[in-house]
Here is the input.
Amino acid sequence: MSTSFSRRPVPVVALLIALTLPSCRRADNREMTSEPDMPAWFEEVSQTKGLDFRHDAGPLPAGRYFLPQIIGSGAALLDYDNDGRLDIYLVQNGGPQSNSRNRLYHQERDGRFSDVSAGSGLDVAGHGMGVAVGDVDNDGLPDVLLTEYGGIRLFHNQGKGKFTDITRAAGLDNPQWGTSTCFVDYDRDGWLDLVVVNYVEYDPTKVCSHGGGAPDFCHPRNFPGAVTRLYRNRGSASPSFVDVTLKAGLGQAPGHGLGVLAADFDGDGWPDLLVANDAQPNHLWINQRNGTFHEEAAQRGLAYNALGQPQGNMGIACGEIDDSGRFAVFITHLTEETNTLWKQEPRGLFRDSTAAAGLAALHWHGTGFGTVFADFDNDGALDLALVNGRVARSPAPLDVSAQELGSFWRRYAERNQLFAGDGKGSFRDISPQQPILCGQAAVSRALAVGDFDNDGGLDLLATTVAGPAGLYHNVVPSRGHWLIVRAIDSSRKRDAYGAEITVLAGGHRRRSWINPGFSYLCSNDPRAHFGLGSAEAVESIEVLWPDGVRERFAGRKADQIVVLRKGEGTPFSRKP
Amino acid sequence: MPRRWRIGICLIIVVLVLTAGAGYWWYRGSAPQPPVVDTSGREPEVAAAIAAAQAKVRHQPRSGDAWGRLGMILIAHAFEAAADECLAQAERFAPEQPRWPYYRGLLKETYDLQAALPLLRRAAALAGDNSAPRLHLAELLVNQGHWDEATAEFQRVLRHEPDNPRAHLGLGCLLYQQGDLDSALKHLRQTAAAVPNLRAPHALLAEIHKRRNEKSDEERELALLEESQDLDWPDPYTEELSAVEVGVAARLDRADRLARQGRTDEALRVLMAAVQAAPNSYKARVHLARRLVQAGNLPEAEEQLHAARRLEPDSFEVLAELGVLLQKRGAYREAAECYQHVLDVQPAQAMAHFHLANCREQLGDRTGAIASLRTATRCKPEFALAHKVLGRLLADMHQDAEAEEQLQYALRLQPEDTQTQQLLKRVSERRSRTRSR
Here is the structure.
């Protein structure tokens, strides 16, 4: 076998990796105005709502390109003061000595955001990456875990907007390059454990170039991969963790980890872990129900694409996109690859269904990062949003819409994409008709979803490298009916991460999960959202709690936020 | 001949010559000119190669080969927009040549699929016996969901080359996608038999056997998958692109290829030429040093690494190589200094901690070595060798509880390591003896 066009780390290949989208952008621009009759789904409200965050990616590279810069930084949607309104935490990447500190924004009654960073304890500087939110000591207040290039930090929520760094006291240590992270109760003991995905064993002194010496960010293949770390919560009032990475078996397979999703992939009721690896096969760690995991991505069909090739796996979206009763997984990839949709058929086995879903034969696609399945128009069918931005510089003409980024970062800018789902597993590209979300090129990274104004319409928060964070308010006209479910384990005083919620409405059973940890480097609204279409009421709500207990709750009118507490429903067993 | 006639003939000749001259002048003047390429900041060798190819185009402005060659050189050195322009001209002047639409298609498929597909289709049609463009097109069609056309392309290749493993792989993938598991198995097995260390067929075979609940077959394929890798299919056209690449990176690649083929002397010569051509390239010196070490010329290798260190004082690549070399000749103190320098810049560099531990142990500082190994395993928990050496050192110092734990970690990561098994057995026995006492 000879060296191939697509795999060699040499300029001939680099040209393919490094190309941008000049002509498709022109095509996009044409399309942006070709179907003006479709109403806008979003309006950008960051300025009007007081969200004035601008990402600091550190000094512009010269000679050596510092890889953490292009990986970007994430964000979290969390209600840290339990006032019922989502607040925002945004992460910086300027480095430990930078004046740019992570920012915490509190949402006021009028929907505006106030910068409450100073004195919150969350206003730290560093090469910030991902965020996970979870109540590690079951005190009813969500705590925050931050990953960085070279470390992690656990901030304990003290109440009244104050957080304390308890990393060392809690026994947490990860000197590697942490990226996405999430909380999951993998051993079902009622205490949230922690998963930290690590990217590569990076050597910042390595100089990489594309094409006859032009410097650029290194490809991850230049560095050894790193293992995903698992920290078990010892379960005490003062948070304490123990690193069980090796004991749990996660040390067996290092990878270039970027994305993570904890969910029950094999249907046994126990949470498994999917790790998206950049330029390597994904890892699917199946929970063996004894504190250990077994890697099964290849045989379950999630490691490679339809041609058996590993891809540049970045962000992960998960949702029930048809009436199958099983969730599908979507992972974003590089511009020269295809973002991939895997459907479950049967339970526990996945198949690349990208083409059948209409997500393959697109005019263009970018280098995808953050991605979410969400029913934006509440028609009962999940839609798909993803944000893009290159990882290798483009020598092609620059996108005019990214002018404010400056000449360096503009070369990495791409536009976002939005697809409308039909509820049967197929999608239609509506990006050209959505210029607010998809018309502005940027180096986008995290994409978080949540209902900021509790109006039943899902909103989006996107982060960019060296640019502003975008807050996209859902303005879909004539949205369908909806229901938002908050599921609380009363004995633990916290959101029941991992609970599966099934809503019966209008003759449809729709499923969603209490799980804020998906997409890329971010933590999302922990509540489950359901678009109900024309159904004005739900007939019943079923909850499969993380410990395997099933409860049924009474039906109710649509268009409200309901809080379900474990123990208050009617227990039932699934029919054999 | 009357004088008038003679004058008339002369005039006609003059007019003809002038017309021919004007025609030639117009012909030359209207010929396309090569694009301007900014080579500032690039290696002189790269700039020279581009300038030479541009000169050839100016000399033969209607030569498809000259334009194509310039396009290839531009592609190889990442001037994509200019390359596309040249290849379009090459196609114009040599429309029968498959290379030019193929290279353009490869360029465009990364950002404009609608423009790439006709180019790749044209290249496939022109390529004749060379199936690489057709197979590339077919794979692109699979990813784009154009399964009927992709199937037809794979089948067309198989009509001429019935054993082509790449075509069998493509068909196997398509049949699997369409739910025909039996037929998919046949094609994938054919690929696996032809290219046993290729990862893709084993991955798909494992997946199919899992679906069919054929446990032993699934396990066999998973075991083969572990030993296989992503390989690249032969493609004469893209290999030609590699061949026109110049500069340090190209020389280093060439040397690596030669070394892989066992042609170590030639590889060494290429690397020496690379250092001579680019004395300020620390990478060239590191590569040369590695090859010199393999050739047993340690003093020259060390000299190259010292020179590289002067160029890139903080480079982990340089310092790690130098440290290893210094350890080889027993200069543990200097080697430790190299690793310490790495750790000043990159405190979480597990390999540097590991080597530093070795130096410390050799210098009689066991406590320091243990501390370094603890940090190495903290930075990289999957570092089996570090757990093992740490276990051994702790056992030597009779810290058996921790030694046992470290050796257990090492075994968990490398269960077949008999040395660790024996060491763990000894430590565990000693622990139980101590406990029983």
Summary: Residues 326 and 424 of chain A are 12 Å apart (CA to CA). DSSP finds five helices and 40 strands in chain A.
